[in-house]
């Protein structure tokens, strides 16, 4: 397998620029990676994410050995590798998105306030604060993600997973949206949350109707139909 991962590097660049344009990545704060087999393409440390280039994406193996790229990988490399070694996912996005940070300052978890959060695994945990780039943070984030696709990092940011980078990015957007709704609702009163029973009822409807998947239009055989 080639170590250059050219397509994955280009995909990461596009994702970083889109997330930065949406205000979810600022300056050099945040990192993105994609796994291909036993290889990981990841943003380099110190890269300005709004203008990142493919030369600022480094390829490593699952032990962190650099295989391709002229720049050192992100200081959060062990966070990414710990997740890849533990879970079956294809991409990871770590942001310092403002509303995700805000919820992590005031909550121990982001409760389920809307059924659209269910793809994230239900309520999103808030990982206690550890300095960035440390083994303690990497282990705490990894352990919080069992059965989850997202975690908030207290006084820090957010991490989302996906089978693909597109899915991980969508989870980042979804998480920030849910944090926004919670903060706005809290400004007016006490938000209602969905119970486990209500969440299970929504999951049943999603499964039964194949919700969210495009379907062909059903045209009836009424008189005059073409």
Automatic annotation (TrEMBL):
SMART domains: Aldolase_II. Pfam families: Aldolase_II (PF00596). Keywords: Lyase, Metal-binding. GO terms for molecular function: aldehyde-lyase activity; metal ion binding. GO terms for biological process: pentose catabolic process. It comes from the Bacteria. Residues 10-183 form the Class II aldolase/adducin N-terminal domain. One of its GO terms (cellular component) is cytosol. This is Aldolase. It comes from Nocardia terpenica. The lineage of its organism: Bacteria, Bacillati, Actinomycetota, Actinomycetes, Mycobacteriales.
């Amino acid at each position: 397998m080639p170590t250059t991962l050219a397509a994955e590097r280009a995909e990461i660049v596009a994702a970083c620029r889109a997330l930065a344009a949406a205000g979810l990545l600022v300056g050099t704060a945040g990192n993105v990676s994609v796994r291909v087999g036993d290889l990981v393409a990841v943003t380099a440390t110190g890269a300005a994410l709004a203008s990142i280039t493919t030369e600022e994406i480094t390829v490593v193996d699952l032990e962190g050995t650099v295989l391709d790229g002229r720049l050192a990988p992100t200081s959060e490399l062990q966070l990414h590798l710990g997740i890849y070694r533990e879970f079956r996912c294809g991409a990871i996005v770590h942001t310092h998105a403002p509303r995700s940070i805000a919820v992590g300052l005031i909550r121990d978890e982001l409760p389920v306030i809307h059924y659209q959060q269910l793809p994230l695994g239900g309520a999103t945990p808030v990982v206690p604060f550890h300095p960035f780039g440390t083994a303690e943070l990497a282990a705490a984030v990894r352990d919080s993600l069992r059965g989850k696709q997202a975690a908030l990092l207290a006084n820090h940011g957010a991490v989302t997973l996906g089978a693909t980078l597109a899915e991980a990015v969508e989870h980042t957007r979804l998480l920030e949206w849910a944090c926004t709704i919670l903060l706005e609702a809290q400004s007016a009163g006490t938000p209602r949350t969905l119970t486990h029973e209500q969440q299970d009822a929504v999951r049943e409807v999603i499964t039964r109707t194949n919700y969210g998947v495009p379907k062909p239009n059903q045209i009836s055989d009424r008189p005059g139909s073409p």
